[in-house]
Amino acid sequence: MSIMPSEISTDDPDASIALRGHSTNLVGVPTGLLASVAFNDFPLPLCISGTREAHRSLFERLNTLSDPHEAGRIFQDYMALVFDLDHVVEQNERRRFRASYIRLLKDWGFDSNTPAAAVLKGWVESRFGLFPTFHKAPIRRFNSSQWIDYTVEKMSGRFNNNAIHMQLDLLYEFCQWMLLRFHSTGKKHMLLYRGTNDLREQQLIQQIDARNAIVRLNNLVSFTTQRSIADEFGDTIIEAEVPVAKLLFFDTLLSGHPLRGEAECLVIGGDCRVKLSYL
């Protein structure tokens, strides 16, 4: 059974199509191109300006390794040391929450519309220039209550501290390093699936035929590598060939991470060619 165009949100299509992102970003590719189907079909490598240069010692150490599990351990140890993630509160010391990339991933796994999730979406907006299209509700205009709620939550002091954007920069660069070195050598795309009962997060840009369409994904969205797992999350299945350059996280990147149980990947959004079907 195919998905009809009316079943995907097209509220105020002129506004939603025009406002895809900022005019600038930190990855050296124009945001309009980055958000386009053309980029997804013919992706380019991406890197966040200055990140690997600022942490040269980490990537020099990683380049000497031949085991992905050891690379993951080195990365996690480095993050814990540089950002003091294992800090123990001493007696009489004032307790202050230290934002952590692992905590953001954990909260995202529970709910992608929390303040922690807003910080992740805000990081994508800051680094890749892409606006979120959904946070608790569809976002269509800057002056809408939905945009204001998202803006307030992405600046939450509880999660937006301890150089959290720098932590996420490193997570993205490590993810890209791991993909190139161990997991997708020579491949530009990864076949991923998303199951949903709520189609409001996707905006229909073009219905190509009964099963194929171009949709605008949220600026950060969850997929899974397993079709059987996607089936558990809804009766509508979105299948996409996602550029590896748009992966912030994939299921085997780190050991013992909070998203492992669902083989989850975090994908940076934009317009995407997909196959749509009902179970």
Describe the protein:
The chain has 279 residues and is α+β, with helices and mostly antiparallel strands. The protein has one domain (5-278). 36% of the residues lie in helices and 19% in strands. It has eleven helices and six strands. It has helices at residues 13-18, 31-34, 37-41, 51-54, 56-62, 68-82, 101-110, 115-128, 145-154, 164-183, 227-231; strands at 189-196, 203-207, 212-224, 236-243, 247-249, 264-278. Strands 1, 2, 3, 4, 5 and 6 form a six-stranded antiparallel β-sheet that branches. A hairpin with a 4-residue loop joins strand 2 (203-207) and strand 3 (212-224). Helix 7 (101-110) packs across helix 8 (115-128) and helix 8 (115-128) packs across helix 9. It is globular. The N and C termini lie close together (8 Å). Residues 1-18 and 88-93 have low confidence and may be disordered.
Helix and strand run: HHHHHHHHHHEEEHEEE
Largest sheet: 6 strands, antiparallel
Estimate what percentage of residues fall within beta strands.
15-25%
C-alpha termini separation:
8 Å
Structural class category: alpha+beta
CA radius of gyration is 19 Å
Mean pLDDT: 88
Number of strands: 6
* Overall geometry: globular
Tally of individual helices: 11
Number of domains: 1
Which spans of ≥5 residues are poorly predicted at pLDDT below 50? 1-18, 88-93
Question: Fraction of residues in helices?
Answer: 25-40%
Features:
279 residues; alpha+beta; 11 helices
Brief digest:
36% of the residues lie in helices and 19% in strands. The protein is α+β, with helices and mostly antiparallel strands.
